[in-house]
Write a structure and sequence with these properties.
The structure is a homotetramer.
Chain A (H helix, E strand, L loop, with lengths): L12 H9 L7 H4 L15 H18 L6 H8 L3 H7 L3 H11 L13 H18 L2 H12 L3 H28 L8 H17 L7 H16 L1
Helix pairs in contact in A: 1-6, 3-4, 3-6, 6-8, 6-9, 7-8, 7-11, 8-9, 10-11
Chain D binds a DNA duplex (31 and 31 nucleotides) through helix 4 and helix 5.
DNA sequence: TCCTAAACGAGACGGTACGTCTCGTCTTAGG
DNA sequence: CCTAAGACGAGACGTACCGTCTCGTTTAGGA
């Protein structure tokens, strides 16, 4: 009688999406549909080709126009998808941004283990900035942060699904450093915030240019400060 | 022959506005206009009452609805002002946000001089967060950052008119610390970035709750790291 | 990929609209929408209820305020319609005026056949002026002519879609007169212009008052002049 | 205490203006002001240079852009005049259009006296159309008619100050024809309407191209019809 | 010689309409 | 029951123009 739940149970957008595009070679909209040029329903379940086409369109749009030129209408147009299809699976722009961001995660930053926290962090920062610069993910993340300022739900998504997850991945680096005695365990929490803040600040100011010396100095300061 | 520059020389929006509302008691729209209820031109020059009414309307709107519910239309409606009047003096939303932010600057954070960089920074952070929490300025600043992601002009305004200016004000604190030998001069630049990043991260995550211990620890880390 | 044509093929505004409202009793905006008070999409095709509501709103607005007080914004407001809906189907004000004019065509002037050109024309002029006086169509037509002075597209619409069409309907009257030998065939073209000019002049001067004797004299002159 | 009367007594716009520009060579805006490039008050009376500049600007604007692109703002801009100066002397757009029209009157159509009404009218129509085609007056008149549809005051101005005046000048032609026995006196009134209607229709449809044969036929019909 | 009056340019003001864009919802027709 | 398609109401966007107002300047003419 009423509208179906949104999203349908068991197909959480943030879980299903990676399955679609995780394979590394993100399908282009053209390749995602059959030869007819018209992609149609495959029955009462999600069409992976549609999801891929939407993600790919959002990716390219973010890369070309940035957050400013991004709109659901344009994504639907490029993807050859209906808007309800998009809203069904990514009820919020934030969800779509997250999906775009995670579509690049396959080629993502490996957690380094160089035996030195400073070296690890330098490696991470440089890899992260290069990732942001060379993929649509930088734009996606800027968009996600901006979007989070307009919508509490988006903020929650950013905080709980994204930052928290990223923090978990970082945790291993800091745990190793604690074990090596490089930093005090009580400082880890604040160190993480400094680390995030530094990266966000640069991203939001559009200053993620490659500047190894400057990065090295900032990292060195963080590590030194957390020593004891 | 052509249209005059926008804004006219000598009446830079970000400079003239504070004069209007800097006196601490921001006039309400109602009080900003005469008894007639209709505010009109005062000749071929800016009407301070209009400027004040627009700023006040933008302030209250930002406070009530946040960045999401903010629109120039609504500001014009509340201020009893015409939209061209707003665009004349604040060509960009960012300009308006900056004006709103700076309207609270009167009650702003005094640069402390406690003889210790850590104490100075703790004082500053706590004052800044309280400022963000208790005035519309927190919302204004979040809005400004978000807006800067949609518009290169806004980003330039944020970077060149705002962050740069704020950095200048901070410089004195760090200069004193350098003179006292607390930190190495070469570290100042990176330290400023860590400081900004930490505050921005908390603001954008809407976590500027009062947590003196945590703040103290982060500040301590920054200072320690910059020592040598 | 690109935006669809505007308007979509097969739904020419000036053809589809009459079907909606031709039934004589123009539905009011209220009756044009369901009980919910909110009119929404009926799928990927034109909603006749919306079209009817827009026409009705434009009619009443023209009747109340005339061409001066007419605006798309106000039409949208009264019709409870979105502006893009109006622009989608009536890209030009002229299109809307034509639609309003033709909405009254149901009660329109029957082509008379009295056996005498002078009697036919007298009947036509009196019926036309009464039509202009007693329906919003007089205002709509004045508006259309005025609009045509501001916009080449509107002028083309007036000339090609309207005057030409009206001339066709008149042709039959003159053809009969030619067959009866009342007028020379070579004079028909100029006679039509005199006839149109006479009516337009009176309408634009707002002097379509009922004055049968005066009309009779003018008609008589035209017919006499075209005799040989 | 209150605003001065508008316009000041004794300087009716439609009377004073011709005096300024009637001399045939309409001064350009540049020549209308002194060498300084800035035209200022010449005391508590009308500045003819300003009036001339405004008329000239309106003329050229109408010629370049037509009624569509005409605005008081643009006239003021081109004339280097203040908007209140314009509104002071031409309270209505219609007044300004009339002034522009009459600025060309110097080179206006001479009343012919060929001894034949048909020849007189042919001469008049051809001269009028040429006048409309080759000067800004055609545009001015179209604008005046269009403007009259938005404003009863403009309509009154068109009817009482303009059409009536023009009719007076024509009267002499018809009076001569009556004296010659070419037409019946009772037909003059209707004949004038046919004559006006024919010209207006062609002007408003932007079809005042030179077509002597067609004009001759229409004129012949009018004269024949008015014979008796 | 001063003073009052009025026109001048300039341009800001509150409005309002423009035509376009995006939003998120809704309904279809077809697989 | 999903899909592409696209219409829908809503309303913000930034611009143009409207007609009014006040400014400070300039000049003329009466006291």
């Amino acid at each position: 009688m009423s509208r179906p739940p949104h999203p349908p149970p068991g197909i959480a957008p943030n879980e299903a999406t990676p399955d679609v595009v995780q394979d590394g070679n993100v399908p282009s909209p053209a390749s995602a549909m059959g030869a007819s040029g018209r992609r149609t329903s495959i029955g009462a379940r999600r069409n992976p080709a549609s999801a891929a086409a939407v993600i790919a369109a959002a990716r390219s749009l973010l890369q070309e126009k940035g957050y400013a030129g991004f709109s659901i209408d344009e994504v639907a147009r490029r993807a050859g998808a209906g808007k309800p299809t998009i809203y069904r699976w990514w009820p919020t722009k934030a969800d779509l941004f997250i999906a775009v961001y995670q579509a690049d995660k396959a080629a993502t930053i490996a957690i380094p283990d160089t035996g030195s926290l400073a070296r690890d962090l330098r490696t991470l920062v440089n890899a992260l900035w290069a990732f942001w610069r060379t993929t649509p993910s930088g734009g996606a993340f800027r968009a996600l942060i901006a979007e989070a300022q307009t919508n509490p739900a988006s903020l929650a998504a950013l905080r709980d699904r994204f930052v928290a997850q990223h923090m978990c991945r970082l945790q291993i680096v800091f745990d190793r450093a604690v074990e090596r005695g490089e930093i005090a365990p009580d400082n880890v929490e604040a160190l993480v915030e400094l680390y995030f803040g530094f990266n966000w600040f640069r991203l939001l100011m559009n200053r993620i240019d490659d500047d190894p010396d400057h990065v090295a100095r900032a990292v060195q300061m963080m590590v030194e400060g957390a020593r004891r």
